[in-house]
Amino acid sequence: MEFWKQTKYENYEVSNTGKVRNTKTNKILNGSIGKSNGYWRISISIGDTGSKYTKTIEVHRLVAETFHGLHSPLIVDHIDGNKLNNDESNLQWISQANNLAKAKKRTKKERMFTFDEYESIHVEFLSNKQTITSLTHWINNKFNMNHSRPNIGKMIRGDTYKIFYNQLNN
User: Fold this and answer.
1) Which domain holds residue 126?
2) Is the domain of 122 the same as that of 101?
3) Using CA atoms, how far apart are residues 154 and 22, in angstroms rounded to an integer?
4) 128 — phi, psi (to 5°)?
5) Do 121 and 78 share a structural domain?
6) What is the CB neighbour count within 10 angstroms for residue 160?
7) Which of 53, 83, 106 is the last residue of a domain?
8) DSSP classification of residue 153
């Protein structure tokens, strides 16, 4: 069951599932995936009329701080390794050293796609007019993988998987 808590930022709440909403407008913020690190982030307005500014926040950190408290100098770990799963039950505070050790253990090799998987990816890309970033998110969730945005871009352009690409485009 989803429930909401007030964050440390005025006019913003976060849910235990990782959604963020503005309490003034009651709208859920869309956010985006950070290109450099792959984490969901949102932009919020802070301050009043005379001194208002925008701050970009990583959602996993906001969820962890709100539901588990702030534990500096520890960092937030996604227990299942999925950077986009910001459910409070999937987040924990750990040391940088432990986080690096966990990352080494769970690094997934980017396995090869079957032709059927490749075809479904192209259908998803073309039919839903997805960006490479959103397609990468879709692929990693659907196939439980950890592919990077540049590699998915190469695959869509036919730079990799050339045999599959040629089969689909002939």
Assistant:
1) 115-168
2) no
3) 38
4) -105, 5
5) no
6) 15
7) 106
8) H
Contact at 8 Å (CB) between 59 and 41?
A: yes
Look-up: residue for tokens 């408290």? 69
Q: Mark whether 27 and 63 lie in a shared domain.
A: yes
pLDDT tens over the chain, length 170 residues = 999 999 999 999 999 999 999 999 999 999 888 877 889 999 998 887 777 889 999 999 999 999 999 888 899 999 888 888 899 999 999 999 998 888 776 655 556 788 889 899 989 998 888 889 899 989 988 887 878 888 898 889 888 888 888 888 87
pTM of the model: 0.64
Beta bridge partners of 76: 93
Joined together, the tokens standing for residue 45 give 């307005």
Angle at 85 between CA 73 and CA 36, to 5 degrees: 65
